Amino acid sequence: MRRREFLQRAACGMGAAWLAGRALTNGAWAQEMFTGAATVNPRHLTSKEASYISGNGLPRLARKFEASDTVVLGQTGIRTSRLAMGTGTIGVNHHSNQTALGMDGPGSLPRLLLNGYDHGLRFFDAADSYGSHPYVAKALKEVPRDKVTVLTKSWARDAATARADLDRFRKELGTDYLDICLMHCLTEPDWTQRFRGVMDVLSDAKERGIIRAHGCSCHSIEALKAAVKSPWVEVDLARINPIGSHMDAEPDIVVSVLREMRAAGKAVIGMKILGQGDMRTRQDDALKYALSLDVLDAFTIGAESKAEQEDLIRRIGLAA
User: Fold this and answer.
1) May I ask the CATH architecture of the domain 3-16+46-318?
2) Is 16 exposed, middle or buried (0-12, 13-18, 19+ CB in 10 A)?
3) Cα dihedral sign for 122, 90, 154, 74?
4) What confidence tens digit (pLDDT) does each residue in 124-157 have?
5) Do residues 237 and 218 lie in contact, with contact meaning Cβ atoms separated by under 8 Å?
6) Beta-carbon neighbour count of residue 288 at 10 Å?
7) Strand-strand pairing, 70-72 and 79-81
8) 107 φ, ψ to 5°?
9) What angle do CA 214, 87, 2 make, to 5 degrees?
10) Domain limits of the chain?
11) pTM, entire model
């Protein structure tokens, strides 16, 4: 792997879900994150950041939301839950905080996914770089396949690698088809031309029923704008939170681009909802912001225990 590509993968992996680092154990997270008694403080918000989440910045929600709400992703016809279960906290080099939970036992990643399923979550968010495919596969053995949306991501940048990834991913996940396959962590403004070969492979896979929808996860505002203009993009995974933490640009700029994306009929799934941990003591504000936007079909957040997951589900239901 070239050094530039390695660094890019590492950077994207470090921002793959909502908590940076492994400083909090499962028990500590449940106490600190969800009681407000955090001993590990996030950075102080600037006045500009605070303005996004104060006063009129967060109007009262017009209706109630639930993590288990059934949503339709753009024009794909895919129906799933509003909240996706992320599996990629610090997801890099085929490892993540979620895969570190293990394959077996009550606290394992498969049991965490199944706990979410029992609470109405129907959206599994995986990726090759997270190393989460085998764990998702184990959970899939215990639920009806057609009741779960499986999203995964490929780092392929050429057609041959993309074809090989699709074959390998389905074997690793133990499924004949993928609901959504995204090109992972795109930053290049010309990616729709540069990586046309990968796009063609995914288009062909959709025609053959190997995947149901294709798209990208963007990690630069230029790549995001290119995704808006591309009729090929059916699903976009975009970074969004009220303080602009680990995002492609200021929130207002990103939201305006995402509005164009929604107007074009594309599905938009939010990530970095808690700013990669910067809003971990203000998660209610972050969730309310995501729910108040008119641009997100769904959003993904990674939990590391049942307590975290269930509290997150509860907070979404209480958002007002």
Assistant:
1) Alpha-Beta Barrel (3.20)
2) buried
3) positive
4) 999 999 999 999 999 999 999 999 999 999 999 9
5) yes
6) 23
7) antiparallel
8) -100, 10
9) 70
10) 3-16+46-318
11) 0.87
